[in-house]
């Protein structure tokens, strides 16, 4: 029996959805990895986080322009990619995107660090058994899936609360860093400071290291687009897109920068370089020692990662369902149900946690998760320029939507001129009044599009450049090859899927929202 349909998300819930997705494992586990990739250069390290915020801000503006010119439906960049590629063979772009989202849109990275931080909080050991870490990660994914499976509205309340906890943990880290910086709190550590040689390198980083470092930074910000995935589930999409999303991203960017500065202040350089995914846990141990506080705060970080798993499992399952409704997946009729879409996300996430070897599993998962999106963002940025300067596309002419007042309820139900396939059957109602509203035009500056395009192209191409020394268990080319291969696999599925025409001059108007 299907569970109740999740309730509409209000503005605060939409902000929590974004904040929960952004503030996950990235800010607690990636900084030390990024610091190692930039060879211990504190200036470049901080500069990369500033650059990451700029890239995300550019992406947010580009996605806003797309969203305001298309129906408010679930799917996020899937809808934008379809609009850009509407003259492609029907279904090709959708299948490529669907395979990247379903096969690589997993919750594994955050679930893995949830396991690491839980074991660190219990034992205080930095090198816990990988078997136990993976087991806890699987239980984490399973628990979140169960909540969305049987209690979808409770899941929404849960990630609202977790969003507040996440911000609180970041504020605590910032305050501790400030107290250490002004000398009110001592770490009792005479190790080398990260600020003694602020501009120096351990050695010059390779272009491969810089590209992977930027991928890790972008992963730390991943989630800025989360509201775009579930616009059909949002009460007021325009408010969320123009106010809630920018405010959530801007506030998180400021918090991130202050947090990484706090890491540099508290953790000595060599220890920070080798702290791995537990850098935030080591941060608290430096301040509180092996006390109950140093154990409790890593639990808070683990709960923060749990919130990220909760949000990702919700948002990506909604997208899985949307992709199935558009017939972009094998056995699409199966995945159109909410339970089946959740199960699909669970299966992929568990496989990605369990299958790779334990050595360097976290870095590999992160890079694999974020890499295919760079190619998609390159296509979206280039496509936006094409749409804007091709008169026949009629871009930015002011999208029109219909507002229909429903007689048997007090709300206003919104439907687009071109609506997408509904995820659940609409409630029967009679309409007493309709009105057509033209949305305001949003135009991204060309410099914004250029920054977003160049940054993503850099992250897409340079991971293929061999690093000077290969000292990892997983080959450097593995994650970009698998990421690109998944996109190719989507194209092959499109070519050989049965019973569907392969070539049409343009997509149906309903599918495009144009």
What labels describe this entry?
514 residues; L-amino acid transmembrane transporter activity; 63% helix; three-stranded antiparallel sheet; Amino acid permease/ SLC12A domain-containing protein; AminoAcid_Transporter; globular; mainly alpha; AA/rel_permease1; Amino acid/polyamine transporter I; 2 domains
Give the topology, please:
Blueprint (H helix, E strand, L loop, with lengths): L10 H12 L2 H13 L4 H27 L8 H8 L7 H13 L3 H16 L6 H21 L1 H30 L25 H15 L4 H4 L7 H30 L2 H5 L5 H10 L3 H34 L6 H4 L2 H17 L6 H28 L11 E7 L5 E5 L14 E8 L7 H16 L16 H19 L12 H4 L2
Antiparallel strand pairs: 1-2, 1-3
Brief account:
Keywords: Membrane, Transmembrane, Transmembrane helix. This protein is mostly helical and 514 residues long.
Can you describe what's shown?
Residues 402-435 and 501-514 have low confidence and may be disordered. The protein has helices at 11-22, 25-37, 42-68, 77-84, 92-104, 108-123, 130-150, 152-181, 207-221, 226-229, 237-266, 269-273, 279-288, 292-325, 332-335, 338-354, 361-388, 446-461, 478-496, 509-512, and strands at 400-406, 412-416, 431-438. Helix 7 crosses helix 14 (292-325). The chain is globular, with a radius of gyration of 23 Å. It contains 20 helices and 3 strands. It starts with 10 loop residues before the first helix and ends with a helix. The chain folds into 2 domains: 11-390 and 442-512, Up-down Bundle (Amino acid/polyamine transporter I), CATH 1.20.1740; 400-438, no CATH class. The protein is mostly helical. Helix content is 63%, strand content 4%. It has a 3-stranded antiparallel β-sheet with strand order 2-1-3, with no helix packed on it.
